[in-house]
Specification:
Length: about 250
């Protein structure tokens, strides 16, 4: 009887350890939830989009469960480092400044920055035309930084907490134009809200590398890189890409 109890105790300990191991393998994905078609909230309250599909495909390759956690864009890196989630999959540009706070995977797509403005306006992108114009962008983004670095003495810059709020001001006439990621703009221009607007000029920056962020020194980065290579090689990435865009963004 005593030995049987020992067996039961040992089995219970093993189960407890196993349960802990499974729990430890569950990853929390941080994203914004306000950046369609890359990440947004659908009518049922679920977080959806290109970023989420890519994240779930990576989790499947790594054979781990994943939950999605939303965060305000401005605080998403501090939230990662505070361990509110384990990785950021939120169309985050890889920059030297951000590399000081987090580590990035290899890029999972490449973006461009381009202006949009009303179709009815002969909007130009040279400084002479832009002088005195009001241009919007999302705060703490490459677009916002580009405007501040290149046009701060030319235009009035208005920065927004979300891309959607920048579009609302553009639609209401409070902005002359918006600078943002081309592929986000592409999706918005197809919508009813964006039907009276169009791209203007050529992209002002066309080498915006987008990566997944993890905490500094986290070995999860190597696992994500291996999984990313797998989904590209086996066609999973292309299937996700084609769901959202009629061209490759890889």
């Amino acid at each position: 009887m005593k030995s049987y109890k020992k067996i039961l105790l040992a089995a219970a300990a093993t189960l407890a350890f196993g349960a802990h191991a499974v729990a430890a393998e569950k990853l929390r994905i941080g994203t914004e939830g306000a950046y369609p078609p890359f990440n947004g909230i659908d009518a049922s309250g679920q977080v959806v989009g290109f970023d989420i599909d890519i994240a779930k495909a990576l989790c499947a390759k790594m054979k781990t469960e994943c939950d999605v956690v939303t965060s305000d864009w401005d605080g998403i890196i501090p939230a990662l480092n505070a361990k509110k989630f384990d990785l950021i999959v939120a169309s985050m540009s890889i920059t030297d400044e951000r590399k000081q706070a987090v580590d990035f995977t290899a890029p999972y797509y490449t973006n461009k920055l381009q202006f949009v403005a009303p179709k009815s306006v002969d909007f130009k992108t040279d400084n002479a035309y832009l002088k005195g114009k009001v241009i919007g962008a999302q705060r703490a983004t490459i677009a916002g930084t580009w405007l501040e670095d290149h046009l701060s003495d030319v235009v009035t810059i208005k920065l927004y907490d979300t891309q959607e709020n920048a579009y609302l001001d553009l639609s209401s006439g409070r902005l002359d134009g918006v600078l943002a990621d081309k592929f986000v703009q592409f999706d918005w221009l197809k919508s009813d809200a964006g039907k009276d607007f169009e791209f203007k000029g050529q992209p002002v920056y066309d080498n915006d590398k987008i990566g997944i962020a993890v905490r500094k020194g986290d070995p999860l980065r190597d696992k994500l890189n291996a999984a990313l290579k797998e989904i590209v090689d086996d066609g999973t990435y292309k299937k996700i890409n084609d769901k959202y865009f009629p061209f490759s963004i890889y």
